[in-house]
Known about the structure:
Elements: H1 8-12, H2 24-38, H3 45-58, H4 63-75, H5 83-102, H6 106-110, E1 112-113, E2 116-117, H7 118-132, H8 140-152, H9 161-177, H10 181-193, H11 199-207
Antiparallel strand pairs: 1-2
Amino acid sequence: MKYVFMTLTTAIGLWVASAQAVTSEQFQDAYQHAQAAVAGDKAQIPEAVDKFTRLAQAEPGDPLLLVNLGAVTAMQARTTWLPWKKMRYAEDGMAMQDKALALLTPATDARLQDGVAVTLLVKFTAASTFLAVPRMFGRRDQGAKLMSEVLGSPLFDPAPLTFRGVVWLRAAQLAGDQAKPDQARNYLSAIIEHNAPQAVEAREQLKQIKPRNGS
């Protein structure tokens, strides 16, 4: 059984964030381990889980910390060949993210992290996890719904271009998976038209989409 968590790169990397009781130094320390894990160093995953656990304990009930703890917890499925352990890690991680989603309130709409509404960060992080785990978990529809909510939110347009580019890129990948090439093309074109940091990658992906005339 192959577990792919590549789409968590951004959710865990750029957008994991600290809360009031968490210092920037503590966050950056956890961030470094998470980034190393995303890059393929599986030995960093337990350390990332431990550090994010501590951050979440420092701010219990904070949905942003909890959703990211869920993301790195789910990544532990990459550390074992035992199917029951893979299942447990993925399910535990997604359960944390379900709780984080349930904690969203109008206050999280107003709260910003790096210029992005916390509500958007929580939904996008959870969506990235739900779309990454195997279909047997039955989370793809929920992940797609969360992606639509992020893209359609009035909080999305005011968000920094870096974040919007990340979301558009993931949305294009989802559209490709759903055999919706025109939709994928639109998201990639938005990245290029806005000159988002992901523009080079978007151009490369556009080349992989067949022209509308099928030629």
